[in-house]
Automatic annotation (TrEMBL):
It comes from Albula goreensis. Belongs to the heparin-binding growth factors family. The keyword Signal applies. The lineage of its organism: Eukaryota, Metazoa, Chordata, Craniata, Vertebrata. This is Fibroblast growth factor. Residues 1-29 form the signal peptide.
Amino acid sequence: MWKWKLTKGASAWSHLSLLPLLLALLVSSLPAACRDAHPLTRSPQVTNSTVVVVGRHVRSYNHLQGDVRRRKLFSFQKFFLRIDKNGKVNGTKSRDDPFSVLEIKSVDVGIVAIRGLSSNYYLAISKNGELYGARDFGIDCMLKERIEENGYNTYASAEWRNGKKQMFVGLNAKGKSLRGKKTRRKNTATHFLPIMV
Ligand SMILES: *[C@@H]1O[C@H](CO)[C@@H](O)[C@H](O)[C@H]1NC(C)=O
Ligand SMILES: *[C@@H]1O[C@H](CO)[C@@H](O)[C@H](O)[C@H]1NC(C)=O
Protein backbone atom coordinates (compact mmCIF):
# COMPACT_ATOMS: atom_id res chain seq x y z
CA MET A 1 0.00 0.00 0.00
CA TRP A 2 2.63 2.42 1.18
CA LYS A 3 4.94 1.36 -1.56
CA TRP A 4 2.27 1.91 -4.22
CA LYS A 5 1.66 5.44 -2.98
CA LEU A 6 5.35 6.17 -3.14
CA THR A 7 5.63 4.96 -6.68
CA LYS A 8 2.59 6.94 -7.68
CA GLY A 9 4.06 10.04 -6.07
CA ALA A 10 7.27 9.58 -7.91
CA SER A 11 5.58 9.22 -11.25
CA ALA A 12 3.56 12.35 -10.60
CA TRP A 13 6.79 14.24 -9.98
CA SER A 14 8.25 13.07 -13.21
CA HIS A 15 5.22 14.46 -15.04
CA LEU A 16 5.71 17.84 -13.42
CA SER A 17 8.47 18.68 -15.84
CA LEU A 18 5.85 18.63 -18.58
CA LEU A 19 3.60 21.03 -16.71
CA PRO A 20 4.98 24.34 -18.06
CA LEU A 21 4.62 23.06 -21.57
CA LEU A 22 1.06 21.87 -20.94
CA LEU A 23 0.13 25.19 -19.36
CA ALA A 24 1.55 27.13 -22.27
CA LEU A 25 -0.45 25.01 -24.69
CA LEU A 26 -3.61 25.47 -22.65
CA VAL A 27 -3.27 29.24 -22.35
CA SER A 28 -2.51 29.72 -26.02
CA SER A 29 -5.61 27.75 -26.99
CA LEU A 30 -7.92 29.56 -24.52
CA PRO A 31 -8.99 32.73 -26.36
CA ALA A 32 -10.06 30.84 -29.44
CA ALA A 33 -11.93 28.28 -27.36
CA CYS A 34 -13.79 30.96 -25.43
CA ARG A 35 -14.77 32.78 -28.54
CA ASP A 36 -16.28 29.69 -30.09
CA ALA A 37 -18.08 28.46 -27.03
CA HIS A 38 -19.46 31.74 -25.68
CA PRO A 39 -19.93 34.30 -28.43
CA LEU A 40 -21.76 36.63 -26.03
CA THR A 41 -18.98 36.80 -23.46
CA ARG A 42 -16.41 38.08 -25.89
CA SER A 43 -15.50 41.25 -24.04
CA PRO A 44 -16.45 41.03 -20.40
CA GLN A 45 -16.08 44.14 -18.26
CA VAL A 46 -15.06 43.64 -14.69
CA THR A 47 -16.67 45.93 -12.12
CA ASN A 48 -15.47 44.89 -8.70
CA SER A 49 -15.75 41.12 -8.85
CA THR A 50 -18.87 41.04 -10.97
CA VAL A 51 -18.48 40.18 -14.63
CA VAL A 52 -20.96 42.06 -16.73
CA VAL A 53 -21.62 40.18 -19.91
CA VAL A 54 -21.48 42.45 -22.90
CA GLY A 55 -23.79 41.55 -25.74
CA ARG A 56 -27.44 40.86 -26.22
CA HIS A 57 -28.06 40.12 -22.54
CA VAL A 58 -26.24 43.03 -21.01
CA ARG A 59 -29.34 44.78 -19.75
CA SER A 60 -30.88 41.66 -18.38
CA TYR A 61 -27.74 40.80 -16.51
CA ASN A 62 -27.46 44.24 -14.99
CA HIS A 63 -31.02 44.04 -13.74
CA LEU A 64 -30.54 40.68 -12.16
CA GLN A 65 -27.25 41.44 -10.49
CA GLY A 66 -27.88 44.90 -9.11
CA ASP A 67 -27.73 44.67 -5.34
CA VAL A 68 -30.33 47.16 -4.17
CA ARG A 69 -31.83 49.56 -6.68
CA ARG A 70 -34.03 52.49 -5.79
CA ARG A 71 -36.58 52.76 -8.55
CA LYS A 72 -40.07 53.62 -9.61
CA LEU A 73 -41.97 51.12 -11.68
CA PHE A 74 -43.54 53.01 -14.55
CA SER A 75 -46.25 51.04 -16.26
CA PHE A 76 -46.86 50.81 -19.98
CA GLN A 77 -50.11 52.69 -19.29
CA LYS A 78 -48.06 55.46 -17.63
CA PHE A 79 -48.84 54.84 -13.98
CA PHE A 80 -46.26 54.68 -11.24
CA LEU A 81 -46.86 51.61 -9.13
CA ARG A 82 -47.37 52.54 -5.50
CA ILE A 83 -47.70 50.63 -2.25
CA ASP A 84 -49.42 52.82 0.31
CA LYS A 85 -49.26 52.83 4.09
CA ASN A 86 -52.14 50.37 4.33
CA GLY A 87 -50.45 47.91 2.05
CA LYS A 88 -52.73 48.74 -0.86
CA VAL A 89 -51.16 48.45 -4.31
CA ASN A 90 -52.29 50.60 -7.23
CA GLY A 91 -50.98 53.18 -9.66
CA THR A 92 -50.59 56.94 -9.61
CA LYS A 93 -50.00 59.50 -12.35
CA SER A 94 -48.30 61.78 -9.87
CA ARG A 95 -44.56 62.12 -10.27
CA ASP A 96 -43.97 62.93 -6.63
CA ASP A 97 -45.98 60.36 -4.77
CA PRO A 98 -43.61 59.10 -2.05
CA PHE A 99 -45.40 55.73 -2.02
CA SER A 100 -44.16 55.07 -5.55
CA VAL A 101 -40.50 55.04 -4.51
CA LEU A 102 -39.45 51.41 -4.33
CA GLU A 103 -36.41 49.43 -3.43
CA ILE A 104 -35.69 46.50 -5.72
CA LYS A 105 -33.33 43.91 -4.32
CA SER A 106 -31.99 40.73 -5.88
CA VAL A 107 -32.71 37.80 -3.60
CA ASP A 108 -31.74 35.02 -5.99
CA VAL A 109 -30.77 34.70 -9.64
CA GLY A 110 -33.56 36.42 -11.54
CA ILE A 111 -35.65 36.82 -8.39
CA VAL A 112 -36.25 40.18 -6.75
CA ALA A 113 -37.98 41.60 -3.71
CA ILE A 114 -39.69 44.97 -4.15
CA ARG A 115 -40.33 47.10 -1.09
CA GLY A 116 -42.16 50.39 -0.83
CA LEU A 117 -39.69 52.75 0.76
CA SER A 118 -42.28 54.92 2.53
CA SER A 119 -44.77 52.22 3.44
CA ASN A 120 -42.23 49.49 4.20
CA TYR A 121 -44.53 46.91 2.60
CA TYR A 122 -43.28 44.33 0.12
CA LEU A 123 -44.99 43.92 -3.22
CA ALA A 124 -46.59 40.48 -3.06
CA ILE A 125 -48.80 38.09 -5.00
CA SER A 126 -50.84 35.68 -2.90
CA LYS A 127 -51.57 32.08 -3.75
CA ASN A 128 -54.90 33.06 -5.29
CA GLY A 129 -53.37 35.91 -7.25
CA GLU A 130 -54.13 38.93 -5.12
CA LEU A 131 -51.64 41.77 -5.53
CA TYR A 132 -50.96 43.29 -2.12
CA GLY A 133 -48.39 44.79 0.19
CA ALA A 134 -46.93 42.31 2.67
CA ARG A 135 -45.73 43.54 6.06
CA ASP A 136 -43.07 40.81 6.26
CA PHE A 137 -40.93 39.30 3.56
CA GLY A 138 -42.12 35.84 2.55
CA ILE A 139 -42.61 33.58 -0.46
CA ASP A 140 -45.43 35.79 -1.77
CA CYS A 141 -42.79 38.51 -2.21
CA MET A 142 -40.44 36.50 -4.43
CA LEU A 143 -40.89 37.96 -7.90
CA LYS A 144 -39.34 36.68 -11.08
CA GLU A 145 -38.05 39.66 -13.02
CA ARG A 146 -37.80 39.28 -16.77
CA ILE A 147 -37.19 41.62 -19.67
CA GLU A 148 -39.73 41.32 -22.44
CA GLU A 149 -39.14 41.89 -26.12
CA ASN A 150 -40.39 45.49 -25.98
CA GLY A 151 -37.80 46.36 -23.32
CA TYR A 152 -40.29 46.46 -20.46
CA ASN A 153 -39.95 44.22 -17.42
CA THR A 154 -42.49 41.77 -16.06
CA TYR A 155 -42.69 40.54 -12.49
CA ALA A 156 -44.23 37.12 -11.96
CA SER A 157 -44.77 35.27 -8.72
CA ALA A 158 -41.81 32.94 -8.30
CA GLU A 159 -43.93 30.71 -6.10
CA TRP A 160 -47.53 30.64 -7.25
CA ARG A 161 -49.18 29.79 -10.53
CA ASN A 162 -52.71 29.68 -11.82
CA GLY A 163 -52.68 26.13 -13.12
CA LYS A 164 -49.76 26.23 -15.51
CA LYS A 165 -49.96 29.96 -16.09
CA GLN A 166 -47.72 32.43 -14.35
CA MET A 167 -49.27 35.26 -12.37
CA PHE A 168 -47.88 38.76 -12.87
CA VAL A 169 -47.82 42.13 -11.16
CA GLY A 170 -50.20 44.26 -13.21
CA LEU A 171 -52.10 47.54 -13.26
CA ASN A 172 -55.08 48.05 -15.50
CA ALA A 173 -55.70 51.07 -17.74
CA LYS A 174 -57.23 52.95 -14.77
CA GLY A 175 -54.29 52.25 -12.48
CA LYS A 176 -56.02 49.61 -10.39
CA SER A 177 -54.16 46.46 -9.41
CA LEU A 178 -54.96 43.36 -11.39
CA ARG A 179 -55.56 39.90 -9.98
CA GLY A 180 -52.70 37.62 -10.97
CA LYS A 181 -55.14 35.17 -12.52
CA LYS A 182 -56.19 37.81 -15.04
CA THR A 183 -52.66 38.66 -16.12
CA ARG A 184 -50.60 37.47 -19.04
CA ARG A 185 -47.01 38.10 -20.05
CA LYS A 186 -48.06 39.46 -23.43
CA ASN A 187 -50.48 41.97 -21.95
CA THR A 188 -48.96 45.42 -21.54
CA ALA A 189 -50.83 45.80 -18.22
CA THR A 190 -48.02 43.69 -16.77
CA HIS A 191 -45.22 45.72 -18.37
CA PHE A 192 -43.10 48.09 -16.29
CA LEU A 193 -39.99 50.17 -16.74
CA PRO A 194 -37.78 50.52 -13.69
CA ILE A 195 -36.94 54.23 -13.52
CA MET A 196 -34.10 55.60 -11.46
CA VAL A 197 -35.07 58.03 -8.73
C1 LIG B 1 -17.17 48.41 -5.67
O1 LIG B 1 -17.39 48.10 -4.31
C2 LIG B 1 -17.38 49.23 -3.45
C3 LIG B 1 -17.47 48.75 -2.02
O2 LIG B 1 -18.35 47.67 -1.89
C4 LIG B 1 -18.49 50.18 -3.85
O3 LIG B 1 -18.50 51.31 -3.03
C5 LIG B 1 -18.28 50.60 -5.29
O4 LIG B 1 -19.37 51.40 -5.70
C6 LIG B 1 -18.20 49.38 -6.19
N1 LIG B 1 -17.86 49.78 -7.53
C7 LIG B 1 -18.49 49.33 -8.58
C8 LIG B 1 -17.99 49.84 -9.89
O5 LIG B 1 -19.44 48.54 -8.50
C1 LIG C 1 -55.11 54.35 -5.47
O1 LIG C 1 -55.49 54.19 -4.12
C2 LIG C 1 -55.61 55.40 -3.41
C3 LIG C 1 -55.87 55.07 -1.96
O2 LIG C 1 -56.98 54.23 -1.81
C4 LIG C 1 -56.70 56.26 -4.03
O3 LIG C 1 -56.81 57.49 -3.37
C5 LIG C 1 -56.36 56.50 -5.50
O4 LIG C 1 -57.40 57.20 -6.14
C6 LIG C 1 -56.11 55.18 -6.21
N1 LIG C 1 -55.64 55.46 -7.54
C7 LIG C 1 -56.21 54.96 -8.61
C8 LIG C 1 -55.58 55.34 -9.91
O5 LIG C 1 -57.15 54.20 -8.57
